[in-house]
Amino acid sequence: MKYYLVALFDDESYKNLSPVQRNLSKKYRANRNSPIPYIPLEVLENPNVDKLNVVIDKIIKPYKHFKVEVSSKVSICDSNKTLNLKIEDVGYIKRLNRLLSDNLQLHGFNVKGIETDENLQLTLANVNYNNKDNKRVINPLDSRFNLSTLKVNRLELWKISNTRRETLIQTYPLKDF
Q: Which domain of life, per UniProt (predicted)?
């Protein structure tokens, strides 16, 4: 069973993302009942959840809420069938992702990694129908949407099964200063 470690945002960021998600879902025929927007960090195969909780708590203990920069480049990931916005390469999120990956592998977890390009992406919606005319990188986002920075306040572990939507396993809140 695959488990996903994802980064989630605060309420203010979701208020800014909601019209963007709705607009792009309509434009590219994405699933309107998609999960809340998230940044996938790691994919784990059949981990021992109790051991995983201890390791992740230890890794993220010094981290506090942080901001990520979102670009206006929209793309469709063919392997995951998701509609994404590109995350800029600067900042906390890249360091946290690399630290999680390295430490989870050192502790013996089967880490698959995210099957996107070399950059992190903000997943907005699941695409059921992929039109052949859609290219890997799509037109940039309209200028009327102001999405320069979003604030990450927690990580979550999800188990996704084919019969149900995401199942929340564990929440890992970041420090608040």
A: Bacteria
CA–CA distance, 32 with 109 (Å, rounded to integer): 34
Beta carbons of 49 and 18 less than 8 angstroms apart: no
pLDDT at 137: 47
Domain total in the chain: 1
- Residue 85: give the domain boundaries: 2-173
Predicted local confidence at residue 7, as pLDDT: 94
Q: Residue 145 in contact with residue 87, Cβ under 8 Å?
A: no
Cα–Cα distance, 131 to 124 (Å, whole number): 18
Phi/psi zone of residue 122: left (φ > 0), alpha (ψ -120 to 50 degrees), beta? beta
CATH number at residue 110: 3.90.1140.10
